[in-house]
Amino acid sequence: MQRQDSLQGSLPLLVLKILARRGPLHGYGITAQIEAISEDILRVEEGSLYPALHRMEEAGWIKAKWVTTENKRRARVYEVTAAGRKQLEEEETRWRAVSAAVAHVLQRC
Amino acid sequence: MSWLSRLANAFRSDRLDRDLDEELRFHIEARTDELVARGLAPEEAARDARRHFGNRLLLRESSREAKLFSWLESVIQDTRFGLRMLRKNAGASVAAVLSLALAIGACTAAFSLIDALILRPLPVQDPGTLVYCSYVAPDSPTNENTYVRQALFERFGRASQGKLELFGTSFPGNLQTISFGDSGVQEENARVQLISGDGFRILGIHPALGRLLTAADDGRKVAVLNYSFWSSHFGSNPDVLGRWFHFWGADFQVVGVAAKGFDNLSPGYRMDVWFPRMNSTGSEDPSQGWDQVWGRLQPGVAPEQARQILQAAFTNYRRDHTDEFIRSGGPPDQLPKYTAARLNLKPGSSGSASMVRMEFERPLWILAVVVALVLFIACSNVANLLLARAAAREREMAMRISIGAGRARLMQQLLVESGLLAGGACILGLAIASAAAPSIVNLLSPSGYPAYLDLRIDWRILAFVGLAGIATTVLFGLAPALRASAVSPHEALKAGARVSGNMGLLRLLLASQVSFSFVVLFIGGLLLLSFYKVTSVNLGFSKDRVALFQIGMNDSAKNDRAYLIATQLLGVVRRIPGVEAVSLSQQGLIGGNFAWIERPAVRFPGREPESLKPRYLQVAAGFFDAMQIRFLGGRDFTARDMAPGSSAVVVNEEFVRRYLSNAIPIGQRFEKTGDDPHPVSQEIVGVVQDAKFNNLRESNSPTVYAPWRYPGGTLEVRTAGDPLTIAPVIRQVIDHFNPETVRAGSAILQSEQINNTLLRERLLALLAGFFAIVAIVLAAIGLYGVLSYSVVRRTKEIGIRVALGARQLGVVRLVISDVILVIAIGLGIGIAGGFALGRFVASLLFEVTPSDFWSLALPLACFLLASALAALPPAFRAARVDPIVALREE
Predict the structure, then answer these.
(1) For the whole model, what pTM was predicted?
(2) What is the DSSP string of B598-627?
(3) First CA to last CA across chain B, in angstroms?
(4) Could you say which DSSP state residue B116 is in?
(5) How far apart are CA B351 and CA B356, in angstroms?
(6) What does pLDDT average to over chain B?
(7) What's the per-residue H, E or C state across B149-178?
(8) What separation in angstroms does the CA of B355 have from each of B266, B760, B766?
(9) Pick from B309, B310, B292: nearest CA to B132
(10) How far is CA A60 from the centre of its chain?
């Protein structure tokens, strides 16, 4: 039932990072940014993105508001909060540590 | 987001759904725009964007899960679906609800009785600080005494000033006739109670009408009515204030009605009228006193502190009044024990122990255990049913999981279904309980002495039912729910996959069912056997066609010529057509535990006084004839014996066996020393067979029958036909015989009188027997269900075996062997449990012990018979499996 997507676990980290860098973005914008920056290597499943966004909203890492875009469409944009920035720092540190360790192992084998 | 706002979200879910849809729509449109910009055709771009999105519904579901309590919503959905599923299996659902309702109803009835009789706090102010005094008599350490003489009561009052406020009450008496005579005679049967004038104030009871008694009322002829009595007998008419009624040879005026709900201080009876003590003849009069003394602890006073204060007064009083002990026949060597006796202050928050409570507390707890076991059995039956149904619905579950239902959600849905069953059963059970509990109160009321319990359905009962409902839901619903939600869609959806094979849970349920039902059967069997033994006891007299009349006699007639009036009375009654024999005695036979029996010392010429004291009963001539007690030798009293001065007595077999080693005793003399310290010489003129006197449980004891010379006591009439048809005539004749001296009181059949002493035995036998039947039927249904299910599951296997040459007997053995070990284990546990509980029941049994052969053999035989009957149909079905049909089903 649940297809594993490669971003599981690291999705909140990426979302937080992008929102912290680029400022407020809507869901589609976040997907597009992740795909663009990763040069299409990382694909975000919408099925994972929105639940993740709502969970993060509930955890207080990001906040959302409705805005009207230039072509008169209502969009919900997300913005990182102070708690989110702190969380981002922690997750980034952890991610770096883990990926360095994995890289280390891969090299030694 | 706070819990509260989540809850709010559940109700605003439409708007949130729209928000979510809008957000997702934006996403799809944005992607479509981009794809179009990259050069795709607009329709293809839209399709691609949507496909990319995947299962939009699942997405919405899990997004919302994170946000809000869609739970409430889903419960409503599940309820609808659950109702539909239950309707689909209407027969099984009705059976499940009915068996559960019966069990829950029985538990609730038991709880409401126990609550009303034992647990519920009195409806008085701050019941927690209410206490009552009790002490133990030196000669019978198990017997609690509460009587306090007026002189001691006054000492208590002085000693405990400021720490404890005291008041006294009398015991509930029999129903008495009180007559309101001021506006035409209105006679009412009422239970009256004396109470210190202060009592109502100390209890904190308010008047519903008029005023209550005060300390100033002591000695005045005023009365307060019970609220229910007022509304049932006076239609809640306020005119009752100021009315006079006649009672105990005096006139009383009604001054008020007590607050609604205040019925008594000893649950079991309802007091209808309270009044203060009429006249005080001085505190040194030993007949003045209170049956019960109650105290209200003042703020900051610990019970033990109050107890020590009263203890000091109690000990001092006894030291000053050792003569009371000696006068009442206490052995002098017991005197130190008497003065050192401990005074107890018992918590009175739920009232003191009435006769009803003392008699029925243990039986009610036993019944509670029995019905709780029945509830367990009913629960496991329903669980069996649901498990079988869950197996049948395995594909449905698998389907739902594979299209994306959450497992928790599936479990929830199954639990809601169970909850619906339990909820229905609770409502029905409440109805059963409110019908059953009052009829149980009737069962435990002796005729003419009605017990009363306040069985209103209040929040305590509702809370109990609610808890029972939740507990049963969890009990029978959780296992099937866990199991169904653990379905593996991959396995279950395979074409032709057989229904999953986990029989472990079914076996566990079956074993517990077997053991519980055996315990219930065992206890029920013990109580039924005991009831059978006690009712088939050899009375020694004949109880049929005998009516007993209580005869009231004017005390002034108690003179030397009274015997002549008695003889005349007997002659008059004897001449009534239809009367076969008539006699009088001081007390009727089998008066129950209230009977007072004189036990004087006897001494035979040339011997020491006997250590065993005989019963000394007084009966008029013709008594043995009327009661059909057989003479073994000698003769009955003659008219001459009835005159004072005769020394003739009749003794029973046991008397001869104990004192005279079976030697023919006619003409034998002995000395009797009783209340009168001077020995009285007695001559044995006859010997009769042994007969029960006080109750059916007593063993034969040496008995002396002496002449009863007064026109009072109990009049026994043996009639040719049904005594009730001529009882009114007899009563009229007695009333017209000599109205100044003799009054006929209530009539009761001898057989009814005996039944009154067997209320507890009958109640227990009836209810325990009934629940034993319920338990065995439920267990048989359970066994039938498990076996049927296992046959269905193994049809293919059986088919193969038959095709390979297995015989029918072998097939049956195969099916039965599946459960035989389970039953054996269940039975083993059941027998152990039965013995454990049997010890608790043993004190209520008559000539039966749990370790008797029949105690075990009877329930075992019943159980095996029932299981055999339950196993037959599935076994037949297994034996008749046609291999061709079974294998073609593939």
Answers:
(1) 0.73
(2) B--EEE-TTSPBPSSPPEEEEE-TTHHHHT
(3) 55
(4) I
(5) 12
(6) 83
(7) EHHHHHHHHHHCCCCEEEEEECCCCCCEEE
(8) 9, 12, 21
(9) B292
(10) 14
State the ipTM, two decimals: 0.76
User: Per-residue pLDDT tens for B119-174?
Assistant: 889 989 999 999 999 988 766 666 678 888 888 898 999 998 888 999 999 887 66
Query: Which parts of chain A sit beneath pLDDT 70?
Result: 1-9
Q: Is A55 at the interface with chain B, CB within 8 A?
A: yes
| Rg of chain A over all Cα atoms, to the nearest angstrom | 15
Query: Are B766 and B741 spatial neighbours (Cβ–Cβ below 8 Å)?
Result: no
CA distance linking residue B236 with residue B820, whole number of Å = 65
Chain B residues closer than 8 Å to A27 by CB: 23, 26-27
Q: How many other CB atoms sit within 10 Å of the CB of residue B669? A: 13
Identify which of A45, A46, A55 has the shortest CB distance to residue B27: A46
Is the pLDDT assigned to residue B859 strictly greater than 80?
A: yes
Torsion-angle region of residue B404: left (phi > 0), alpha (psi -120 to 50) or beta? left
> Which of B66, B402, B404 lies at the smallest CB-CB distance from A55?
B66
DSSP alpha helices (H): ranges in B261-302? none
| Shortest Cα distance, chain A CAs vs residue B29, angstroms | 9
Three-point CA angle B548, B549, B552, nearest 5° = 145
CB atoms A74 and B22 under 8 Å: yes
The span from the CA of B309 to the CA of B157, in Å, is 10
Please report residues of B whose CB lies closer than 8 A to that of A76. Answer: 19, 22-23, 26
Residues B630-679: tens digit of each pLDDT: 999 899 999 889 988 889 999 999 999 999 887 878 999 998 876 666 78
CB B135 within 8 A of CB B125: no
- Name residues whose C-beta falls within 8 Å of residue B795's C-beta, 6 or more positions apart in sequence: B881, B886, B889
Query: Which tokens in the block code for residue B459?
Result: 């929040």
Structure tokens at B715: 């009049």
Structure tokens at B485: 């939600």
Predicted pLDDT at B574 = 93
For chain A, the distance separating the N- and C-terminal CA atoms, rounded to the nearest angstrom, is 34
CA atoms A88, A93, A97, A103: torsion sign? positive
Give how far the C-alpha of residue B111 lies from the chain's centroid of Cα atoms, to the nearest Å.
9
User: Contacts of residue A28 in chain B, CB cutoff 8 Å?
Assistant: 26-27, 30-31
Cβ-based neighbours of B757, under 8 Å, separated by 6 or more: B590, B592, B593, B695, B696
Per-residue pLDDT, A40? 72
For chains A and B, count residue pairs whose Cβ atoms are closer than 8 Å. Answer: 56
Nearest by CB to residue B30, choosing from A28, A45, A50, is A28
What's the token pair of residue A13? 């980290």
Distance (Å) from the alpha carbon of A103 to chain B's nearest alpha carbon: 32
Chain A partners of B55 at a C-beta cutoff of 8 Å? 47
Please state, in angstroms and rounded to a whole number, the distance separating the CA atoms of residues B870 and B258: 58
CA distance B391 to A12: 41
- What's the pLDDT tens digit per position in B409-422? 778 888 888 888 88
**Residue entry with tokens 């006294």:** B168
Rounded-to-integer distance, Cα B343 and Cα B258, Å = 31
Please report residues of B whose CB lies closer than 8 A to that of A46: 24, 27, 52-54, 59
Amino acid at B436: A
Hey, what are B835's tokens? 């013995």
- Give the separation between CA B758 and CA B752, rounded to whole angstroms: 10
**B510, B388 contact by CB (below 8 A):** no
Ramachandran class of A104: left when φ > 0, alpha when ψ lies in -120 to 50, beta otherwise: alpha
Q: How many angstroms away from the CA of B55 is the closest CA of chain A? A: 8
Query: Do B547 and B752 meet the contact criterion of CB atoms below 8 Å apart?
Result: no
Task: Tell me whether residues B62 and A51 touch, CB distance under 8 A.
Answer: yes
Task: State the helix-helix crossing angle for B459-485 and B504-535, rounded to 10 degrees.
Answer: 140
